[in-house]
Amino acid sequence: MIKHHLIYALFPLFLLSSCAIQPIDNSNSSSSSGGEKDLQKDEEGFIVLPSDYLSYKDDPKDTKKRNKISFASQVNGVNYYTSNMRLFVAGERIPLYSVKVNNVHSFSPDAATRADAAVASVSIEGEITFQLQTTFKYLGVCKISPLGRNVSYSLDEDYRVCIFTINTPGQYIIEFKNGAILHLFVNELKDSGYNASNSLYFGPGVHDKNNDNRINGSNVIELSSNQTVYLEEGAIVRAKFNAYQKSNIKILGPGFIDGSTFVRNASTGEVTVPIDFNYCNNVEFDSIGILDPAGWCYNMYFCNGVTINNTKIISSRANGDGISIQSCQNVNVSNSFVRSWDDSLVVKNYPRWSDRSQEGTTNHVHFSDCMIYNDLAQCMEIGYECVGEVMNDIAFTNITITKATHLAPISIHNSNNANLTNVKYDGITIENADMGQGNGNRYLVDISCMYSPTWSEVQKKTSLGSVDTILIKNVKVNRGIQHPIVSVRGSLENRSEYPQVAHYVNNVTFQDFSLYGERLTASYSNYQNEYTNNVVFENSGEVTGATYILKDTSQYGHNITVL
Question: What's the farthest any 2 CA atoms get from each other in the chain?
């Protein structure tokens, strides 16, 4: 299923592509050359490398543990990135998948203007050095996110090769000043745990309704209780996974669910949600990727006991929310990456569709150790739709936002009857706070309890509730727009059918919040505050933002085995 061999020579070359994004700043770079030489280029625009540039041989004197890496070979029927980047490890070429991204920061139902971007997926053990060759000059600038992982690199300006080393599984973004970007997903190399009993196995290659009878004519895989799905590295599944009133289901990766062949029409409502689980208990998602979904990515609705780990999402079409948790309890999302063209991580309360008098309950929903790249809407959002009195214990911990381009990265919008309590944002790094692009606004923090003419009556018309006990702690904003807005607002009910009473935001603590190196205080020039009680600003501790634990790979040598 996956190739097994040692690397000794160059892997044959094939074509690869680009996308345009906003220029970035540089925070970690070194240049290995003073200027480009007069070197020959191949027909694809890449400088021809010396014959031994990418060659690799074992060092027989190195007796330490071998580093290992695995990745899938190219398969027919998959779109590969075909323009300006090639990725190598120890002389072998790693295929780059092509995925659509959306750099337009204004909503449109057809999302007509999208661009190709690159994705690589590998699994590693130990410490791996990558070589990323491009067709363009680096000009001494590269950024590897999350910055908290401190990934070192060097730039060979002559041959246009960026060399960097990764020893810790996770998700990485390599960006250059001209806007070129590589999404690199690094999984931990481990046994799949796949068991044929009551399992669905998808091997490398494309799986769709035309070649796989487990996918029905509507492009749906209907799951049963006590079932495990395994997507091998290199598996591309073009279908949605659906579960209704089921229990004890697992979907395991590191393969991908690909929504690129499905139509998303926001005007007509045509949509294909890759993960659609309703009224389910004890479900687990681990190490899968979702590329170009035709709508939301994860729809978790009235579920209890949900674990989502190491999921990777890139969306670019209308309502391309990343992970949507609605009226769910006991949810843990960790070690995941979301690049979305709508809210990235979102929590809502909905009523039951079958009987809207039965309103939702949200309790114990935690996001931790995640990375967000947001092209539209909010990054960490609660609301707007909050139908049901109980929304309690929602946490965003150790989160890195590499880019927030449109709306507030930290946001709570209670526009219904929830008594929203005990929310925590703790250990947040925002590398680029560039909100306000397109038709966005300049909010950095947006907490409100007020009627929304757009959202309050979408699910069910209710009175307003309250927001109480919010902790925003250890937040570090590196760079971005000048004087972004920090807003905490309740409201006075003004609809005639409801009592004209005030609905407050109570007990909000900003603790150790650093904005471009300055501590946030109540005297901040762009702080907005109304219908609130007990909003306090405390600055007494160190501001680190999100932190990362790096693996100790000192027991590994330099030799590499490619599996």
Answer: 82
DSSP assignment string, 297-350: SEEEES-EEEEEES-EEE--STTB-SEEEES-EEEEEES-EEEEES-SEEEEE-
- How many Cα neighbours within 13 Å face the side chain of 94? 29
Distance CA 203, CA 267 (A): 36
Structure tokens at 180: 């070129």
Q: What are phi and psi of 327, to 5 degrees?
A: 55, 50
Could you read off the pLDDT tens digit of each residue along the chain, which spans 563 residues?
A: 333 333 322 323 333 333 333 333 333 444 444 445 678 999 999 999 999 999 888 999 999 999 999 999 999 999 999 889 999 999 999 999 999 999 999 999 988 899 999 999 999 999 999 999 999 988 778 999 999 999 999 999 999 999 999 999 999 999 998 889 999 999 999 886 666 677 899 999 999 999 999 999 999 999 999 999 999 999 999 999 999 999 999 999 999 999 999 999 999 999 999 999 999 999 999 999 999 999 999 999 999 999 999 999 999 999 999 999 999 999 999 999 999 999 999 999 999 999 999 999 999 999 999 999 999 999 999 999 999 999 999 999 999 999 999 999 999 999 999 999 999 999 999 999 999 999 999 999 999 999 999 999 999 999 999 999 999 999 999 999 999 999 999 999 999 999 999 999 999 999 999 999 999 999 999 999 999 999 999 999 999 999 999 999 999 999 999 99
Q: What is the Cα–Cα distance from 119 to 200, expressed in whole angstroms?
A: 25
In angstroms, the CA 3 to CA 7 distance is 11
Take residue 43 and report the two structure tokens written for it.
Answer: 């027909």
In 10 A of CB 531, how many CB atoms? 17
Sequence-distant (≥ 6) Cβ neighbours of residue 472 within 8 angstroms? 410, 424, 425, 445, 508, 509, 510, 511, 513
- For the entire predicted model, the pTM comes to 0.93
DSSP 78: -
125 token code pair:
């053990």
Are 414 and 452 in contact by the 8 Å Cβ rule? The answer is no
Cα 7 to Cα 56, 65, 74, 172, distances in angstroms: 7, 16, 17, 24
